[in-house]
# Entry
Amino acid sequence: MERENNAGMIAWLLAGVALGGVGAFLLATDTGARTRRKLIESSEEGRKSILESGQDLFSKGRDLFEQGRELADDLAVVFEKSRKIAEKTIEDKY
# Structure
């Protein structure tokens, strides 16, 4: 669910960057060279923002993976203890 939400946020970010660029280009009062420079700067800012978002998502994913691994290890220990208790209970009864 969170993955879909993040993908949607990235899609909206990209759409906003594209629409902003088109709007700036159409409404520009500067010369062509100045407009191109501004577009290049804006696209660079957008690229950096997307890169940072991707790095944040990767980091969060890695953290969640580690939490899952720790949980699985803890559950394996609990399962093993439960198995030993069950075996002992069966041996005691028979």
Summary: The chain has a mean pLDDT of 86. Helices lie at 2-26, 32-93.
